[in-house]
C-alpha cells in the first residue's frame, strides 16, 4: 500500500538524515525535523521520470550530492565558510521540490504527479525555504544553491550573474558538478 511505503521511507530517511547531520545540532533540532517531515522532504521524488523518480528520490539525490561534495572537499582541498556547508548545500539545494511532487498508484505501479505548480524560481524558492525553516545561510551557501543548476539554470542574465559569482566562489563549480553527476547516475 502506498501510504505504508511512504511512512516506512520517511522514517528510514529521518534516521539516515539524523546520522548524517547529528553533529550539527541546528540541522537536527526538533523544529527542523518537524518542518522536514511535514514538507515531504524525506519522501518526495526528485523528478517525474528521470533521476530520483521514486519515494524518497529527492532525499537520495541530495545525500549523493553531499557525498560528492565531501569527496571534492577532501580531494580538491575546498574551503568552506563553515564545516556544515557541504551538508546544507547538498541536502537542501532542491528543497523546493518537497511540496511540488507526489505519487499515485496506477496499475500496481507508482506514478509521480504534480501536487503544486512548480515555482519557476527553483533555487530562490529553496533558499527562502531554508532560511525561513532551517538555518540562515552564509553568502557562499546562498550562491552555491542559487547557481547549482549551472547551464540549465536560466537565460543569458542568469548565466552572466553565475559567471561573476563563480569568479568569486570556486565551490559553485563543485556543487554544479556534484548535482549533475548525481542526476546523470539516475539518483
Structure description:
The protein is mainly alpha-helical and 187 residues long. The chain has helices at residues 2-21, 30-38, 57-75, 85-92, 122-133, 139-146, 156-168, 171-184, and strands at 101-106, 109-114. The protein has one domain (2-184). The chain contains eight helices and two strands; from the N terminus they run H-H-H-H-E-E-H-H-H-H. Strands 1-2 form a two-stranded antiparallel sheet. A hairpin with a 2-residue loop joins strand 1 (101-106) and strand 2 (109-114). The protein is globular. The model has no long low-confidence stretch (mean pLDDT 94).
The figure for the number of domains is 1
Task: Enumerate the strands of the largest sheet in spatial order, edge to edge or round the barrel.
Answer: 1-2
Enumerate how many helices there are, as a single number: 8
Given helix and strand content, the structural type is mainly alpha
> How much of the residues is beta strand, in percent?
5-15%
Ends apart, CA distance between termini: 24 Å
